[in-house]
Amino acid sequence: MNDSLDLNEFHWLLAIVQNIDVGVVVLDRNYCVQVWNTFMENRSGLQPKDAQNQNFLSLFPEIDQQWFSRKVESVATLGTPAFTIWELRPYLVRFKNYQPITGQEEFMYQNTTLLPLRSTDGKIKHICLVIYDVTDVATNRHQLQAANAQLQQLSRTDRLTGLYNRGHWEESLKGAYARHQRYGNATSLVMLDIDHFKQINDTYGHQAGDKVIEEIARLIHEHVRETDMAGRYGGEEFGVVLSDTDKTNGWVFAERLRKAVEGLEVLHNGQSIRFTISLGVADLSQQSINYAELIAWADHALFASKKAGRNRVTVYE
């Protein structure tokens, strides 16, 4: 009776292992496959008879063999399980992802467990590898991270131009000012605005005015470096923080941008709109109280450009 019960229990256990929705592989100490369940068959395309007694590492050459051997030997020596999680190692074996809901992922994300299997003599002669498909968890995490990144981007950028909004731009300028105070690196600021912008709005309409602002922003994007910080200061006024740049080179940048705008033609509703910008440049080569003083200097230079006839660059001295 007991033998029959034991046989039934073994049969049930085998049925569970075959049909459970996780990968189950039993390896001997030479990493040869002894058990290969239905999950592994369906995901790998290898039937049990083809995987049986094959070296697991040769079946999956993408596995880091040294890392896997260390992991297995640790489990066998210490007699304790070991684990991997998808955040640190996205997968152990590269399976395609066939889940309809998470179909956008190229491969199956996996958590794995390595379990020591003791024989009747107490020795660990086999290791059980369990592979869990956690693609849905990884996908949800990725989507959440992407959404958070998008929200963060929206919170710091100006909707019309894609440049930093004033709040984030000023925080960035504060950071640049603090780095200058600590390390003494050259830092300059270019402030600019569109000449006769009200006249553009009055003549062509506010949508045309928005188009002009968008085109200015596009040119600024094209001219700045990755280390520079460009923002919409307000209305038709913009600010660009130039890292590791003194006012002489700041003038070079500003003049290049001025000429680019001067040669620009904006088309709106079949009408050609041409316009210019005025710019002011200041740097931190002289003693300052705070970052706001640098803005005041650059604004002062910008006002001087306006007063002198517009469409020009003035450097604050």
UniProtKB/TrEMBL annotation:
Top-level taxon of origin: Bacteria
Reactions it catalyzes: 2 GTP = 3',3'-c-di-GMP + 2 diphosphate
UniProt cross-references to Pfam families, sorted A to Z: GGDEF, PAS
Compartments where located: Cell inner membrane
Chief place where the protein resides: membrane
Required cofactor names: Mg(2+)
GO biological process terms on file: cell adhesion involved in single-species biofilm formation; negative regulation of bacterial-type flagellum-dependent cell motility; regulation of DNA-templated transcription
GO molecular function: diguanylate cyclase activity
Coiled coil stretches, renumbered: none
Enzyme Commission no: 2.7.7.65
Location of the GGDEF domain: 185-317
Cellular component GO terms held in the UniProt record: plasma membrane
Protein name per its UniProtKB record: diguanylate cyclase
